[in-house]
Design a protein that fits this description.
The chain is an alpha+beta fold. The strands form 4 sheets. Strands 1, 2, 5, 6, 14, 15, 16, 17 and 18 form a 9-stranded antiparallel beta sheet that branches. A hairpin with a 6-residue loop joins strand 3 and strand 4. It is elongated.
Amino acid sequence: MASYFAVFLVFLSLGSGLVWLVDAKVFAPKRRLALAEAEGKLGDDLDDETREKLMRQPALAETAQSIFPVVLAITIFRSFVYEPFQIPSGSMKPTLLVGDFILVEKFSYGIKDPVTRTTLVETGKPQRGDVAVFKYPLDPLVDYIKRIVGLPGDRILYKDKMLFIKPSCDNDPKNCNDFQKIEPELISQGVFNNGEMPLDLLKEDLLGIKHELLHNPIFRSSRSEDYYQQNGTAINEWVVPPGHYFGVGDNRDNSRDSRFWGFIPEENFVGKAVFIWMSFEKLRDPDDWIPTWIPTDVRFGRLGKF
């Protein structure tokens, strides 16, 4: 949907600008010429109503002139600076909750053509720990958001609900000889729930990037039978190919991520999530007559950078 809207904005900008330009360069001079001829024939007898009628801009051209600057500004801002997204699922809890509205920094991973998504200017690449929005590799029309844990050349192991990372020597020369065990520290229990099930809130140090995540203490299975199987590696181990990245959700037991569908191509990245600009609570009883999409509260405490 976001891709369709981006294309729509581009064509609306081009269309309204073209209509305005044709009117200004072709039809406006003809209207001025008609007015001059009328003034030459009638002089002071030419009334104001006739003058206005001769110079009146067609409705389409008037509308195009009015909306073009606004649409162009929105298109530029949304395509190259920041784009708003809404969080639809709980796969990134506790970092991002359902009902959060975020801004994604579009220029973090390159300035791209909003229609073809061709990189026009290189500005940077995804870094370990980034919360990134990207086009889902199995369906590029769908936007996904995950935390980047693996960079090109890294070896990733997920065992006993714990990450092990052997960084590529190109990414981390000091730590590339052995797997680094990413062992999270328990913060609290029961602050977040999955239905009736209380979850463990933990803090993880992702080789220098600290963030919180959730584990289900009852859910012991790693679902490894559903993992993406890469040729030449164990069922729970992956080597990130050149030009690709490995992303997982912070809600580790409730996230379909690179463990299940593979790697994220660099060209699929949309941008880096940096700011929560609005957050709505939508808790309602099943018997409530008010639609579930109507917010019940605003979570002002969540607004800001994350």
